[in-house]
Amino acid sequence: MKEWIMNLYSNLETFILSIGYYGIFVSTIIIVFESIIPIIPVGVFFALNCMILGKIPGLIFSYIGTIIGCMLSFLLVNNFLKDRFTRILNKSKNGKKVINFVNGANLTSLAVIMAIPFAPAFLINVAAGLSDKVNRKTFLIALLIGKVFLIYFWGFIGVSLKDSISNPIVLLKIGIMIVIAYLASNIVNKKLGVK
After folding, report:
1. DSSP secondary structure code for residue 145 in this structure
2. pTM of the shown model
3. Which of 69, 95, 93, 94 is nearest to 84 (CA)?
4. Degrees (nearest 5) of the Cα angle 31, 163, 68?
5. Residue percentage of the chain with pLDDT more than 90
6. Strand (E) positions, 31-78?
7. At a CB cut-off of 8 Å and minimum separation 6, what does 33 contact?
8. Does position 50 have pLDDT exceeding 90, yes or no?
9. Phi, psi of 35 (to 5 degrees)
10. Which terminal residue of the chain has fewer beta carbons within 10 Å of its beta carbon, N or C?
């Protein structure tokens, strides 16, 4: 699997570099699709954007792509697939627990979960789309807050889960990011009155 990912990464890099400035849009669109259909960890594409465009522009385009992709994923589930997924989940005991947990989510909890670098973004998008309590505005604001920290992690810290767990400095940085996401979402919540 690792070899397959490295080959795909190498082929994508070669292709994107060969098309010049259009590569910016191609790599951003890849991130959008990755948020809807998760094939490869999104950190791979963030790294590719940073290599091709430079650190700051690469992170900006990665941020834009992940926001658009996560929002499209949320809207797809919320508008078209919600009833079907809910029926499937309601048939199992654990499915009902998932629905109850998601229905209890608010702006702060969503922003914090989205800021965690190893949280499965696709599952968060789907779960929020299934919720009766998470509306578009709340989800978008949580995305805008939480994904800043995710992008920061992959752009400036960028280590694996295994390396993160074994390195107290990385764990401290992740903890600080989560606390800042928590505080930022509470401030926004108070200013805008978002639930």
Report:
1. H
2. 0.82
3. 95
4. 15
5. 16
6. none
7. 69
8. no
9. -70, -25
10. N
